[in-house]
Design goal:
The protein is of the alpha/beta class and 55 residues long. It has two helices and three strands. A three-stranded parallel beta sheet has the order 2-1-3, with helices on both faces. Strand 1, helix 1 and strand 2 form a beta-alpha-beta unit. The protein starts with a strand and ends with a strand.
Protein backbone atom coordinates (compact mmCIF):
# COMPACT_ATOMS: atom_id res chain seq x y z
CA UNK A 1 0.00 0.00 0.00
CA UNK A 2 1.24 3.51 -0.82
CA UNK A 3 0.78 5.91 2.10
CA UNK A 4 1.41 9.65 1.83
CA UNK A 5 1.88 11.68 5.01
CA UNK A 6 1.32 15.42 4.71
CA UNK A 7 2.81 17.38 7.60
CA UNK A 8 2.13 21.04 8.40
CA UNK A 9 5.08 21.20 10.80
CA UNK A 10 7.82 18.99 12.15
CA UNK A 11 6.28 15.86 13.66
CA UNK A 12 6.49 15.18 17.36
CA UNK A 13 7.65 11.84 18.76
CA UNK A 14 4.17 10.29 18.64
CA UNK A 15 3.66 11.16 14.96
CA UNK A 16 7.14 9.91 14.07
CA UNK A 17 6.42 6.62 15.83
CA UNK A 18 3.07 6.17 14.05
CA UNK A 19 4.72 6.84 10.69
CA UNK A 20 7.48 4.36 11.52
CA UNK A 21 5.00 1.63 12.49
CA UNK A 22 2.82 2.16 9.42
CA UNK A 23 5.92 2.18 7.18
CA UNK A 24 6.59 -1.47 7.95
CA UNK A 25 5.34 -3.40 4.94
CA UNK A 26 4.09 -0.30 3.10
CA UNK A 27 5.59 2.17 0.66
CA UNK A 28 5.51 5.57 2.35
CA UNK A 29 6.35 9.15 1.52
CA UNK A 30 6.31 12.23 3.74
CA UNK A 31 5.69 15.78 2.54
CA UNK A 32 6.34 18.70 4.87
CA UNK A 33 4.31 21.72 3.74
CA UNK A 34 6.59 24.02 5.73
CA UNK A 35 9.46 23.25 3.35
CA UNK A 36 8.00 21.49 0.30
CA UNK A 37 6.38 24.04 -2.02
CA UNK A 38 6.16 22.05 -5.28
CA UNK A 39 2.37 21.80 -5.26
CA UNK A 40 2.14 20.03 -8.60
CA UNK A 41 4.38 17.26 -7.27
CA UNK A 42 2.31 17.10 -4.07
CA UNK A 43 -0.89 16.71 -6.10
CA UNK A 44 0.73 13.92 -8.11
CA UNK A 45 1.77 12.22 -4.86
CA UNK A 46 -1.82 12.49 -3.58
CA UNK A 47 -3.20 10.96 -6.77
CA UNK A 48 -0.67 8.10 -6.65
CA UNK A 49 -1.26 7.26 -2.98
CA UNK A 50 -3.69 4.63 -1.75
CA UNK A 51 -4.03 6.47 1.55
CA UNK A 52 -3.29 10.10 2.48
CA UNK A 53 -2.85 11.12 6.12
CA UNK A 54 -2.53 14.78 7.08
CA UNK A 55 -1.05 15.85 10.39
Amino acid sequence: MKILYILREEPDETVRRIIQIQSEGNQTKTVNLATDRDYEAILTDIEDADRVIAW
